[in-house]
Write a structure and sequence with these properties.
The complex is a heterodimer of chains A (184) and B (123). Chain A has 184 residues and is mostly helical. Chain A is 82% helix and 0% strand. Chain A has a single domain, classed as Orthogonal Bundle (Globin-like), CATH 1.10.490.10. Chain A contains 9 helices and no strands. In chain A, helix 2 crosses helix 8, helix 3 packs antiparallel against helix 5 and helix 6 packs across helix 8. Chain A starts with a helix and ends with a helix. With 123 residues, chain B is α+β, with helices and mostly antiparallel strands. Chain B has one domain: Dynein light chain 2a, cytoplasmic (Beta-Lactamase). Chain B contains 3 helices and 5 strands. Chain B has a 5-stranded antiparallel sheet, sandwiched between helices. In chain B, helix 1 runs antiparallel to helix 3. Chain B is globular, with a radius of gyration of 14 Å. Chain B starts with a helix and ends with a helix. Classes of the chains: A mainly alpha (184), B alpha+beta (123). The interface between A and B is small, with 10 and 13 residues.
């Protein structure tokens, strides 16, 4: 179930209604995005760190939390810049970040509420810094695209591992999931 | 060449009706889709097909991992009977359900014969 990040990005962009106008607005506020990124990283990891299980994961190795925080700041800023205008590099980077979440063990159940906390903080900063509301909407849509990558990374990593271990075909796997879910 | 489902179905029906203590049989794709089947009432063809493909594939994987060579069949023995899975061709899996009273030697011989017929039709 090899995912094509570029295609996935295009599909999610369309699905979330993340428009060219959104991209332009984010780009023109990239500088502001970078200034608030460290605070947003703090909000994200403070939220996660309050959960005992997450705290253990985040601090499992020396420097992990520091590296993750640095990555968050870059990731947050990239939501404004779009890297290569939301092209292949952006899609690959989102996919890799999703896979890092899988590897580290930060699941969607943790990321989604943590991201909601970040968006609430962004809302506060928009007011404080006298920024327009449509910037919040644009950032929300961009964020939803990125969350979709993280959730999909979990599904892809899990199903790829099952297929590799069992030798099942993709079609068979989907059929078993569908019939299994139907029987729940 | 298009598959002759009528003939495949006929081979299956003859096998089920002509072999003592056989309760049902199915021919399914490796994706778990039914090609043709003669199953006891109450059995869901779709579900049986998916299970059959999953089990054979997993069995082959286990065989490879445990260095058992290529797998001839997967044999499931319960207190009510047997389920035997055999790879028919690359595109088909053959499932046989038999009563506990079935004589295993006869069963295997009949499966072998039917497989030869099915392979010809699937070639």
């Amino acid at each position: 179930m090899a995912l094509d990040p570029r295609q996935f990005l295009a599909r999610m962009t369309q699905r979330m209604g993340f428009s060219d106008a959104d991209k332009q607005l984010l780009k023109s506020n990239a500088e502001w995005g970078l200034t608030i990124a460290p605070d947003m990283a703090d909000a994200f990891y403070d939220y996660l760190g309050r959960d005992e299980e997450m705290s253990q994961i985040l601090n499992a190795t020396d420097g992990r939390i520091h590296r993750l925080r640095e990555t968050f700041i870059e990731w947050f800023h990239e939501m404004f810049t779009g890297m290569d205008d939301w092209g292949d590099n952006y899609a690959d980077r989102r996919w890799r970040i999703g896979l890092i979440h899988v590897r580290v063990g930060i699941g969607p159940q943790h990321v989604v509420p943590a991201m909601a906390t970040v968006m609430a903080k962004v809302g506060d900063r928009l007011k404080t810094d006298d920024q327009a509301d449509d910037l919040r909407d644009a950032l929300s849509r961009s964020c939803m695209v990125d969350l979709a990558f993280i959730e999909q990374a979990y599904i892809e990593a899990t199903s790829t591992a099952v297929l590799r271990e069992t030798g099942w075909t993709e079609g068979l796997f989907r059929r078993l999931v569908a019939t299994g879910a139907g029987a729940m | 060449m298009a598959l002759n489902l009528e003939k495949l179905s006929s081979v299956l029906q003859n096998f089920v009706s002509g072999t003592a203590d056989v309760q049902g049989a199915a021919l399914v794709t490796p994706d778990g889709l039914p090609l043709t089947s003669t199953l006891p009432s109450g059995m869901d063809e779709e579900r049986v097909s998916a299970m059959s493909a999953a089990m054979l594939s997993l069995g082959e994987r286990i065989g490879s991992e445990l260095a058992r060579g290529s797998i001839d069949r997967i044999f499931v023995e319960g207190d009510k009977g047997y389920g035997i899975l055999t790879s028919c061709t690359e595109d088909a899996v053959f499932l046989v359900l038999a009563d506990k009273a079935a004589k295993q030697g006869v069963l295997m011989l009949e499966i072998k014969r039917s497989l030869a017929e099915l392979k010809l039709l699937l070639a």
